[in-house]
Amino acid sequence: MDWRWLGWQLYDGEIWRPTAAAYDALLQSQWASPAELAALRAERLELILRYALETVPYYRGSGLPARLESFPVITRQTLRDQAAALQPEHAPPGRISRWQTGGSTGEPVTVSVDIEAQATRRAALLRGDLWGSRLRPTDPQAGLWASSRDSGKLRSLRARLYDRFFNRFVFNCFEMTPARAREVNQDFADCGARLLYGPSSAVLAFMHFAREAGIEPWQFEKVIPCGEHCSAEDALEMSAFFGGFAVDRYASNEFGPIASRCEYRNWHLNSELLAAEVLLDDGSISTAGRGRLLLTSLCNRAMPLIRYELGDFADLSPLACPCGRGLQTFSSLEGRITDHIRCPDQRWVNLCTFNSYFQHLPLRKYRFVIEAQHRISFLLQADQDLPTGDLDSLRAHFETLLGEPFRFTVRQVAEIPSLPAARTPM
Ligand SMILES: [Zn+2]
User: Where would you tag: which of 135, 177, 184, 195 has the fewest CB atoms within 10 A of its CB?
Assistant: First the structure.
């Protein structure tokens, strides 16, 4: 008996119980035939489109037929400007969580997610994360994340117990040095983690400093570089370094997990949760070919996103995959890239670190510009005038964070034009 799995099924304080049920269902459905999954998708799609037309102000009264082909494309801008109109007047039952997204693009938006969608997303993430391994959902997982929650330094007993019971640990990768890499390597060993996930740049930074420090790296069965682009070469290097199977995954805060790579390293979409299309160069929309990815969420009633343009390019042409899963395959993905700043004192600081400083400001967008070596400008676009004192204090914080000889300029601008590929690079 796996008592942790039993705990997942019984614990109702959060969303572990619905996650366990959704996970069991997804384990079955991945082996359904492509035709069966297409039928399931069509059925769920019709339900969500009807729901949107009946209850969501943005669509209600539009007179659109309940067919995806008739719906307009929406973007991050729509989500920012029409956030209230994209949510039903009466929220679905259960706790609604709000996920802020835009960390890697500097254009924050908030997405509401209902409890069922949260559970399904967690379950789908878990399913993909365990592909190509013999791991069970309850095996210890370590995250190397730019997070304020660090399992190695947690003070609260409740948080420590929670991490220990559910075998989920997070370690801070704000800054990497040889000494920090040694500490994190020991944390991995202490929690007995079998799976490691984290931004590719953070995993690579850890590897770099672990080598520099001459550490024997803790071995993982699976390594998942995520949140930004990871090259095939980097994934293979991670496999060799950690002794396990390393493959990236594709997820966003708007949709949760979108696709994972199977044991053959082929991408499979979470076909039960999403309908995928691409906006081609000629302006037409297709379910195959290369273009700007449009996704429709099939399970989130707190904010049904329909034909949402995520800002990534993908080639949806299907591949034949020998793994036997019926989930849709696709050829390629051009995702997000973030990076680190290397400080003269040998620390590597993840760019996501800066996001935490902006959370209390009413920002629409920010852009980070490297003007010259050690000279960095932050351009901020906000809905209202930002006090000069705030900008000065941000500048002082950044200069303290990175240390000499870095110099920052922080200034408010009226408009930050979008880059051709919004997510690459930051
Ligand atoms: Zn496969």
Answer: 177
How many A from CA of 192 to the centre of ligand 1?
A: 29
Structure tokens at 368: 């980070």
Beta bridge partners of 144: 171
Residues 227 and 330 in one domain: yes
Q: Which of 317, 334, 351 is the last residue of a domain?
A: 334
- Residue 140 in domain: no
421: pLDDT strictly greater than 50: no
Rounded to the nearest angstrom, the distance between the alpha carbon of 251 and the centre of ligand 1 is 18
Question: What residues have their beta carbon closer than 5 A to ion ligand 1?
Answer: 262, 264, 266, 321, 323
Same domain flag for 299 and 375:
no
Query: Does residue 379 surpass a pLDDT of 50?
Result: yes
Cα of 246 from ligand 1 centre, angstroms: 15
* Residue 321 pLDDT grade (very low, low, confident, very high; cuts 50, 70, 90): very high
Average pLDDT over the chain reads: 87
Ligand 1 centroid vs 223 CA: distance in angstroms? 18
Residues 277 and 311 in one domain: yes
Does 67 lie in the same domain as 10? yes
Together in a domain, 325 and 386 = no
Q: What is the CATH number of the domain that holds 131?
A: 3.40.50.12780
220-241 pLDDT, tens digit per residue, is 999 999 877 788 889 999 999 9
pTM of the model: 0.78
Q: Is the pLDDT of residue 9 over 50?
A: yes
- The string of pLDDT tens digits covering residues 273-311 is 999 999 988 889 999 988 889 999 999 999 999 999 988
Find the domain containing 406 and state its range: 360-412
Cα 262 to middle of ligand 1, angstroms: 5
pLDDT above 80 (res 372): yes
CA of residue 116 to ligand 1 center, whole Å: 26
What distance in angstroms lies between residue 276's CA and the mean position of ligand 1's atoms? 18
Please check whether residue 419 lies inside any domain of the structure. no
Q: What's the structural domain count of the chain?
A: 2
pLDDT of residue 424: 32
Both tokens assigned to 404? 């000499």
